[in-house]
Amino acid sequence: MKKLIAVSFFMIALLACQSDDQAIKSEATISFNFSHNWDGTMVSNSDFNNIQYTNAHGDILSIERLRYLISKITFHKSNGEKIVLDGYNLVDVTNGTHLSFSSKTTIPTGNYSNVSFLFGFDNEDNISGAYPDLNSASWNVPEMLGGGYHFMQLEGKYINEQSEEIGYAYHAIRAVDNSDPDNLIFQDTFIEVNLGSVMISNDTSFNIEMNIAEWFKNPNTWDLNLLYNSLMPNFNAQVMMYENGKNAFSLESVSPEND
Predict the structure, then answer these.
(1) CB within 8 A of 91, min separation 6: which ones?
(2) Residues 64 and 169 sit within 8 Å (Cβ to Cβ)
(3) pTM summary value
(4) Among 55, 53, 67, which residue's Cα sits nearest to residue 99?
(5) pLDDT, tens digit (0-9, with 9 covering 90-100), for 37-65
(6) 72 closest CA partner among 60, 63, 91, 85
(7) Which residues pair with 110 in a beta bridge?
């Protein structure tokens, strides 16, 4: 009889703990961590300013600056419902800042059919002067190119065909044809990155990798001797960046492990 009472008390306590645990896990905090590599070799700011990387065209280059904008982290449900996390994040690899982003918005735990984020801003958010922190970071795009903000700044030096060190500035923005200043023609170049389905049962971190080499190779093999500077007003170059950038990001892992 005593054993039965002891078991009963144990089951009651276990159910109470499960109830508390379920209450705790009804909402989850989400964070995104960004790391970088060059075709599998890890890259951090300690690797900058050293001409050591070879792109798909065979150009040898360094990285001296890398920062890019992430926005609209979205959790998709199978019924079409979407939960968009507040905020955006300017990942600054050069200064080693904002490599992680945690949203103040929590999301309900459960199954999600897809998780996505945007590289850059969509047209709804890409509004000149709207973000004081981005303004102070000199992230703006000139009005003659349509205004709004950069999506990425990747800069360094490369060895040209005359064996000289030449600076390059691989800056991604919304593509604009400004051949007629009174009639600017735009093409969207923000990139939706889809990470796939996930089960959220607790506070969760998504670990995202950017393969920097992809910006120079797939599907467009990038020749720095031809495309190394003044790329912001180059409509075709911006479209090529957009196409290559679709292959740059991947999901390394989700932690804690999905239940």
Answers:
(1) 34, 67, 68, 69, 70, 98, 99, 101
(2) no
(3) 0.89
(4) 67
(5) 999 999 999 999 999 999 999 999 999 99
(6) 85
(7) 200
